[in-house]
Amino acid sequence: MGVLDGKVVLVTGAAGGIGKECALLAAREGAKVVVNDLGGAVAGNDEGSAGPAEATAAEIRAAGGEAVSNSDSVATLKAAEGMVKQAIDAFGGLHAIINPAGILRDYMLHRMNEADWDAVITVHLRGAFNVSRAAVEHFRNQGEGSFVHFTSTSGLIGNLGQTNYAAAKMGVVGLSRVLAMEGALKGVRSNIIAPFAWTRMIATIPVKDEASAQRVERMRSGMRADQVAQLAIALASPQSKDVTSQIFGARGNEIILFSQPRPVRTLARMEGWTPESILGHAFPAMQNDFTDIGASASVFPYDPI
Predict the structure, then answer these.
(1) Main-chain dihedrals φ then ψ at residue 71, nearest 5 degrees
(2) Residue ranges per structural domain of the chain
């Protein structure tokens, strides 16, 4: 018996990395799987190929599971609707979507062009909308459904050279939360994972010095995609029916629950504020509660467990 027995799961970006591990584990846990992947480069600047998604589906079938492949892009609503239809046509239903599909085009903002901004926003944020919109009415009508979206510490905390990626991933956080709120009375859940794992996307991180080389090696050896998949499958399972609207992290053998924005400090001035009083009173009073500008490595400075 698996935690997804009798369920149908769509996994995007499932030709490699986190997506592939999620698809393989979903099948081992009893799900019938629609394996989606465009089969393109990390930057998403080629036409892609049907081969990579089919390779994952074939691996599932060879192990005794049930899977079909899909090589369309999450970047269009029509394609996402086709994925949902394929799941229903092939397996008679759809119960969960795990959505790690993504691309990277890393540049400092002062060097980024519109095309690189738009491409990342389209795949990550528009893609999350597309797969959610394509399935949400089906989930609501059947009274059950789980979305497992993916964010990044690049958005939650910040990393240099990833303004497009960070903006998209924080947008997905907002989408997931409101999707969970709107679906609560209909059995529709949405959670989000910030993964720490060695994938081909992470492998594009430039290694400029010994410190960054050591950090990348720790990521490669200590934070695996299959560890992230364990959390994704648990969230997809109907056994997690009381878990929704949360932001989790998966880092090696750690599971992290992230805080969500809430007021930290409030100051009131009965006569109202002026720029001078804000500069002279409000900012100094709040300064000890300011969030520092450190990147994600400063928040997680220790080796993965």
Answers:
(1) -115, 25
(2) 8-260
Angle between helices 17-28 and 225-236 (to 10 degrees): 50
6: region left, alpha or beta (phi > 0 left; psi from -120 to 50 alpha): left
Span 115-158, pLDDT tens digits = 999 999 999 999 999 999 999 999 999 999 999 999 999 999 99
Q: Among all chains, which residue has been given the structure tokens 């529709």?
A: 188
Cα–Cα dist 101/103, whole Å: 7
Contact predicate 101/36, CB 8 Å: yes
Phi then psi for residue 131, to 5 deg, are -70, -30
Whether 302 is catalytic is no
Helix (H, G, I), strand (E, B) or coil at 11: strand
* CA atoms of 147 and 182, how far apart (whole Å): 13
At what angle are helices 17-28 and 51-62 packed, to 10 degrees? 30
**Torsion angle in degrees (nearest 10) through CA of 103, 88, 22, 15:** -50
Q: What is the dihedral of CA 187, 251, 103, 34, to 10 degrees?
A: -40
> Average of pLDDT values for 296-300?
89
**C-alpha neighbours within 13 Å on the C-beta side of residue 1:** 2
Is residue 61 within 8 Å of residue 23, measured between CB atoms? no
CATH superfamily of the domain spanning 8-260 = NAD(P)-binding Rossmann-like Domain (3.40.50.720)
Pick the catalytic residue: 91, 139, 147, 165?
A: 165
pLDDT (0 to 100) of residue 197 = 84
Characterize 216-246 residue by residue with b for buried, 16 or more Cβ atoms within 10 angstroms of its Cβ, and e for exposed: beebeebbbbebbbbbbbbbbbbebeeebbb
Q: What is the dihedral of CA 70, 72, 78, 84, to 10 degrees?
A: 20
